[in-house]
Structures are given as C-alpha cells and as structure tokens.
Design brief:
By secondary structure, this protein is an alpha/beta fold. The protein folds into 2 domains: about 1-125 and about 300-310, NAD(P)-binding Rossmann-like Domain (Rossmann fold, 3-Layer(aba) Sandwich); about 130-295, Dihydrodipicolinate Reductase, domain 2 (2-Layer Sandwich). It is about 35% helix and about 20% strand. The chain has 10 helices and 13 strands. It has helices at about 1-15, 25-35, 55-65, 75-80, 115-120, 130-140, 165-170, 195-200, 235-245, 295-310; strands at about 15-20, 40-45, 65-70, 90, 105, 120-125, 155-160, 185, 210-215, 220-230, 250-255, 275-280, 285-290. It has a 7-stranded mixed beta sheet. It has a 6-stranded parallel beta sheet with strand order 2-1-3-4-6-5, with helices on both faces. Strand 1, helix 2 (about 25-35) and strand 2 (about 40-45) form a beta-alpha-beta unit. The protein is globular.
C-alpha cells in the first residue's frame, strides 16, 4: 500500500508546476479557470493575503515550471525581473515584451515560431487585434504576394470583454444606453499599443491605418484588411492557395466561405480557441477576414497553446478548436 501511495505522489510531483501572477484580471482569471480543469499540471495558487506580496510572488515564479504574467505593462516588467530561475518559462500576456530582444513572439503558426517557442524561456503572448492582422498579412509578405512597403488599412471588431473588468462592468451596467448599443470606434489618433507588433511580425515598412471598434457582445473578434487586387501578385486565388498551404497545422485554418446568409458576425467564434481566415471580393477589390475570440486565440487560449508547446505537450490540449 505504501509503495502505491509513494508512486502516486511521485507521479504528481512530475506534473509541471504552473503559477499565474495576476490571476484576478480578465486574462488571468480565464487562464486559471482553464487550467483548474486539467489533471496534467499542478496549479500553484497564492492565498489572498500573499497574492500581492512581492517575496511570495518571487518564490512562486521561481519555483514554477511555467509562470503566466497577466499584469499591466509596468507591473509585468517588474514581475519578470523577479525571475532568476533558468528553468522557469515566462509567458507574458502584456504588451511589454512583444517586440523586446530575447523574447519569442507567441504565434506558433507563423514564420517558424513554433520551434522557437518550444525552446524559449521567454514568450510574449500576442495582442488580440494584432493576432488577426498578422495571421492575414504575414504569410502574404513572406511568400511575396504583397510588398512590405504596401500601405494597408484594417478594421477590427472586438467584444467588450477585451477592455477588461472596467469595460465589462460599463457595458453590463449600460445595456439600455443607446451609445453602448452600437459599435464604438477608438484609438482615433492612430496610436495603439498593438501597432508595433503588427509591423514587426508582418515584415512591413509602414504601420497600417488601424480602426479598432468595440461592439456590444461579450466576446469575439473580426479583423478585416481590404486590398486592391492589383497590389496582390496572382490576385484572390493566389491568396487562397497561400493560406491553404500555410495553415495546415495549429489553431489557424483557411475557410473558403464563413458567411451566414451574406453576413459575417464578429461573435461567430465566441467561446473558441481557434481562428478562421477567409478571402472575399472580386477581380478589383479584395477583403481578408479573420474570425476568432478575443479571449481565446486573442488571449488566454493562445497563452495556453504556448504553454503546451513549451512543455512538449500536444498544442491543442485543453483548448476548444
């Protein structure tokens, strides 16, 4: 009997230990709830008394095999500085390290990044808006279908959960307010924290004209990029062939038509962790579209995918795709 108990304890000990720094935020809560359902990892949880204690957090980060940092940028930088363990894999969901030297961008479907993620100890989770744009544009630049110098525009519709707890409360408390019943465009001055990663990981020479829009549903995202066919080598069929060949594995897939009676809904993939990309248009004008969940492939789903890869697990483990 003793040997049996000892064997179980040893098996439990071998399971990766995971810590979430910032587990009270929207992304942190989502990561925590997902991991709590899994029996292939051990989740290290600090009690409320020690959740913000810097020494307790430092000990937790350094004892973990994987530490998710789900904090605002400044706090995320501080949290990363607490880690001196060579074995701990840091997955930062903030903007702070997405373009930083020494960090691997956590989008395994593009540019051979999956291999780098598997070996990295510092992984920067992509931004939600950026994920859709990069999925659409990076393959086209990489394969030479569009020029890196091409000036682009993009619109991105996002569920209000993307704005965090304050925005969620704002929308839930303002259901009858006419201003909250329609789309609300923001970042009108063309300054948005996702732009640098969109430029870098697509290999562009110019930032796109970017229009993010909050829409009145909880989660889901639709990113669209219009193109003139004359700017694309081979036109619409070349783009479709590119996507079919490029996205054979992972959580991004090409779908030849995602329309529902002539409409595309930004809530179509709400609650999922995958992404669908499509191409529409005619011989003159094209529209590239990415559909996914801002909380899934746009945040916690991508973070867990990166954890799975870093730990050598099947990348779709615990994900809805």
């Amino acid at each position: 009997m003793a040997a049996s108990v000892s064997g179980k304890a040893e098996k439990l000990k071998k399971k990766p230990l995971v810590f979430i720094d910032g587990s009270a935020g929207t992304t942190g809560l989502k990561v925590a709830s997902r991991l709590a359902e899994r029996d292939d990892i051990r989740l290290l949880i600090l009690d409320e008394e020690h959740r913000k204690d810097i020494s307790a957090r430092k000990e937790a980060i350094n004892s973990a095999d994987v530490a998710f940092i789900c904090l605002p940028d400044v706090a995320a930088i501080e949290a990363v500085s607490l880690c001196d363990s060579p074995k701990t894999v840091i997955i930062d969901t903030s903007t702070a390290h997405r373009c930083a030297e020494g960090w691997t961008y956590g989008f395994p479907e593009i540019g051979g990044l999956k291999t780098k993620i598997a070996k990295s100890r510092r992984i920067a989770n992509p931004g939600c808006h950026a994920s859709g744009f990069i999925a659409l544009i990076a393959p086209l630049v990489e394969r030479g279908l569009i020029k890196p110098s091409l000036r682009l525009a993009t619109h991105s519709l996002t569920g209000f959960s993307g704005g965090g707890k304050k925005m969620i409360a704002d929308y839930e408390d303002s259901k009858e307010d006419v201003l909250h019943c329609g789309g609300r465009q923001y970042a009108l001055g063309q300054h948005h924290k996702h732009l640098p990663e969109m430029v870098k990981y697509c290999g562009l020479k110019n930032a796109p004209c970017f229009s993010p829009i909050v829409v009145p549903h909880y989660s889901g995202m639709e990113v669209s990029v219009p193109l003139f066919a004359k700017d694309v080598k081979g036109g619409i069929e070349a783009i479709k062939d590119c996507y079919r060949d490029y996205y054979k594995k992972g959580l991004v897939r090409f779908v030849d038509d995602s329309q529902d009676g002539g409409f595309l809904s930004s809530a179509a993939l709400s609650g999922r962790d995958d992404m669908e990309i499509s191409v529409y248009g005619n011989k003159d004008r094209l529209m590239l579209v990415a559909l996914f969940d801002n909380l899934g492939k746009g945040a916690s789903g991508a973070a867990i995918q990166n954890m799975n890869i870093a730990l050598g697990m099947p990348e779709k483990t615990g994900l809805k795709a």
